[in-house]
Amino acid sequence: MDKLIVHGGSKLTGSINISGSKNASLPILAASLLTDQQVIIERVPDVSDTNYMLQILSALGCEVERYSGTVKITAANIISEAPYEIVRKMRASICVMGPLIARLGRASVSMPGGCVIGDRPIDLHLKGLKAIGAQIDTEGGNMIIEAGSGLKGQHVDLRGKHGPTVLGTDNLMMAAVLAQGTTTIESAACEPEVVDLADFLNSMGAKITGAGTRQITIEGVTSLGGTHHTVIPDRIEAGTFMVAGSMASESGIILNRVRKDQLLGATEKLRESGHLVRFSDCGTSVSVSRGDTAKGCQITTAPHPGFPTDMQAQFTAMFATTPGISIVEDTIFPQRFMHCAELNRMGADIQVDNGRAIIHGVTSLSGAPVMASDLRASAALVLAALTADGVTEINRLYHIDRGYEMIDEKLLQLGANVERQRGSA
Ligand code: EPU
């Protein structure tokens, strides 16, 4: 297993390009199952989650070609059984359900198991698919989804107790594009990744309006065709490096290939904490540096356009050494605070109670061997290590490789003193 060794204290400077979005790529790759024609998708980040999705598509019968960030997929002859061995490695595999049921009238996909960031039920995914005519049974740990008499458009409210669901909205949208009649999704997720999926589907010939709002309307069509699409920038990777700039750059780091309108939550909170965030006029590049009078603040995660849960751990790491008291509450995944125990081992003063972290900023952290527990928690540990005294050894780096493309190389490019130590699997 690879480790990342971080020597704290380097001042960051220079520029990097932000990769294409992992969370937009995953459903878009799955949506290629909706047509027998070739789709070409650009800026797919080379991370293990997109690799798992491509393995699933290959196992379902797709022809897949990948070179640099471009992926070409032809789903001419596909089957309906997604293999457990690959599906179990990634929760987002469930987004093949919608396309398979739409295209083949049948899907067999393993039930996802537990998840370290909290309970992640799929009741809303199933509610959406059932509402438009799918029957769902479970057998040997698999969900068998069938639509014997076809899918029919309906009015569906997808609001759950923690708000809307991103992949649940995606699944229903992907199933409804080939249904008879019109589907309206109320309380839809309006994250930029949902909009990117709708744009992709519309470029294949779907008729979707309202993506990016709480009500999405999908007028079913009889078939979809090939397309060429470029995935949006990864707003969470960009946000993570914005935090790195705020913690460890005096002269400023520049992040290219970003979208200002997708970074509002992180930008607002970095500025409120006293840091300097300046976008280029066109909003596609941003410079971030540490402010002279950093101070703690309060964050509550919320569905888009609120502050993203996927940025919660990184801000918690920043607040660990920010003067004053900060309060971070996660309303979407209240159990997503595994990083706090590791940050405390580095000398932070964080108390977690009932979905909320209270952080008393300390002067500095000290390097230590730490354990990554999930993707964003690992990013938080890397950020903490950048300014910690001494050396931090981040174990289980595979968590970070799920969603950050070449993180060690990008950090080196910005002047951080990091080294990946390769280990056996
Ligand atoms: N929920 C339900 N029932 C469902 C589905 C979700 O109760 O059927 C609940 C969840 O437990 C959670 C809330 O609804 O409390 C929102 O979950 P959502 O379904 O939106 O999460 P997701 O679609 O499975 C995506 C991202 C996550 C990100 C969340 C929230 C992808 C591949 N994953 O997951 O990203 O945290 O939306 O924004 O897009 C990450 O990248 O690190 C990551 C975990």
Structure in a nutshell:
With 425 residues, the chain is of the alpha+beta class.
Count of the separate structural domains:
2
Unreliably modeled segments:
none
End-to-end distance, in Å?
5 Å
The CATH architecture designation of the largest domain is: Alpha-beta prism
Q: Total number of helical segments?
A: 14
Evaluate the radius of gyration: 21 Å
Question: What name does the CATH topology of the largest domain carry?
Answer: UDP-n-acetylglucosamine1-carboxyvinyl-transferase, Chain
The ligands found in this model are: uridine-diphosphate-2(N-acetylglucosaminyl) butyric acid
Please state the overall shape, judged from the principal axes of the Cα atoms.
globular
Strand order of the largest sheet: 21-22-1-23
CATH superfamily of the largest domain: Enolpyruvate transferase domain
Question: How many DSSP E strands?
Answer: 23
Helix content: 25-40%
SS-derived structural category: alpha+beta
Tell me the major beta sheet.
4 strands, mixed
Mean pLDDT: 96
CATH class of the largest domain: Alpha Beta
Q: How large a portion of the residues is in β-strands, by DSSP E?
A: 15-25%
